[in-house]
Amino acid sequence: MSSAVAMEATRRRQRLSSNGGVSETTEEPAGQWGRAWEVDWFSLSAVILLLCTAPFLVFFFVMVCDQYQCSVSQPLVELYSGEATLLSIWEKAPSFTWTAAQIYTVWVSFQVVLYMCVPDITHKFLPGYAGGVQDGARTPAGLINKYEINGLQSWIITHALWYANAQYFHWFSPTIIFDNWIPLLWCTNILGYVVSTFAFVKAYLFPTNAEDCKFTGNVFYNYMMGIEFNPRIGKWFDFKLFFNGRPGIVAWTLINLSYAAKQQELYGYVTNSMILVNVLQAIYVLDFFWNEAWYLKTIDICHDHFGWYLGWGDCVWLPFLYTLQGLYLVYNPVQLPTTHAAAVLLLGLVGYYVFRSTNHQKDLFRRTEGKCSVWGKKPTFIECAYRSGDGGLHHSKLMTSGFWGVARHLNYTGDLMGSLAYCAACGFGHIHPYFYIVYMTILLVHRCVRDEHRCSSKYGKDWKRYTDAVPYRLLPGIF
Ligand code: NDP
């Protein structure tokens, strides 16, 4: 559609009002979508700071368990008093090993094979599960990519093999991940940097879709936040889907199982805290794979470009820092009183319910274009318009009822409740396992602000109408 025709269509378009009625409008869509970010000094400083510090932060949180029983303050005290030096700490930490390299190579290759060579069959017999070939969201250039959704199947095959090994085959010890943890950190870093650098160079030399590339003019920002939107090799190897979901998230539950096995080996029992962490995080991971098709419509896939933030983050940050609670519990086996354990379980389950229901409501609403029931009623919404990079005019709806009428990001609030539950499962002996809730709060608040900035430039005045109707972001009455 030419832009003149598109403008005319906008003038004439009919707009559904927030109560579902129909009204005429002459307003133009105020916003343009995508590629609107500018690199200010604050963003650039944050990018450089993260590039320089994040790998050491991950090393620090893993090393303090290995050398200081997970005490975060002890190494700082020793450094201050001169008892330890940065070099002595570094030298005591296990280094790269070829055993770890072999384990990691087998792991990543196996996940690539499952991703590329085993088309999904689970959707044929699991009622309600959306697997197989699915459409992604429209990219800024107006494309809709296809994805092979087989993450749940990969997760099931991988865990079935893990179980078969632990019970029958005994090819390797179930503690293998824990036993090679710091050497594996080296291997994941190598892959994280190789993938991010490859994606960066690829964007200049052979981008998958040049029109979806975003060059900001700043090399650090481009490297970190990515240039290509959906880098692919061939038709199906999608970097974002593969690295976001596997090998990191499939590994998450295996890492936790390896920690539980280590507790059993060291102490002869597994604590209730370890079981809680394993169960709550497994629910989260399984939820992710059950809803992998839905995940194609989330910010990571829909809006973020693929750079170091996703490439290195998925290879290193996620498997090492999202599993800190289990690691902590290997070194500090906390047995919780029943009331404490019950409170953690309740917080985790309520958080999960809010997280899942909020995401489900939006998904249902968008899939049915508002023709559905939310909390027993027809949802209310605000009709919006926006333009893609090719000038095309599109319409969308922002729901103003259900959880989305209570606050603009209750899915994040539920996620944070769940995250707090994982941390609280570790008791109150050390702050080490609480790093996760601090990090998740920063991540999701920042994500909320970033998303709202993007939505505001995408929808213009329509976004303002939405924020007037739903004034709070995460906590009604507070934020
Ligand atoms: P959302 O699923 O909240 O998606 C935000 C997008 O939804 C907006 O950009 C907008 O997209 C659309 N939208 C916003 N408001 C409305 C509304 N009222 N009605 C309909 N659509 C609306 O965010 P994420 O993709 O960030 O998160 C998805 C889930 O993943 C969350 O539950 C989050 O907690 C979780 N998550 C977990 C992480 C982790 O590390 N554990 C990291 C990141 C996310 P549009 O342009 O289409 O209008």
Shape, principal axes of CA atoms: globular
Oligomer: single chain
Q: Which stretches of 5+ consecutive residues score pLDDT under 50?
A: 1-36
Supply the number of helical segments: 22
Describe this structure in words.
Helix 11 runs parallel beside helix 16, helix 12 packs antiparallel against helix 13 (272-290) and helix 18 runs antiparallel to helix 20 (410-424). The two termini are 41 Å apart. The protein has helices at residues 3-12, 41-68, 73-81, 86-92, 98-117, 122-125, 151-169, 176-179, 181-205, 219-225, 239-245, 248-267, 272-290, 292-295, 299-302, 308-321, 324-331, 338-367, 403-406, 410-424, 435-459, 461-469, and strands at residues 14-16, 22-24, 132-138, 144-149, 232-233, 237-238, 381-387, 393-399. A hairpin with a 5-residue loop joins strand 1 (14-16) and strand 2. By secondary structure, the chain is mostly helical. It is built from 22 helices and 8 strands. The chain has a two-stranded antiparallel sheet. Strands 3-4 form a two-stranded antiparallel sheet. Residues 1-36 have low confidence and may be disordered. NADPH dihydro-nicotinamide-adenine-dinucleotide phosphate binds at residues 298-299, 355, 359, 362, 396, 398-399, 404, 409, 411-412, 415, 447, 451, 455, 458.
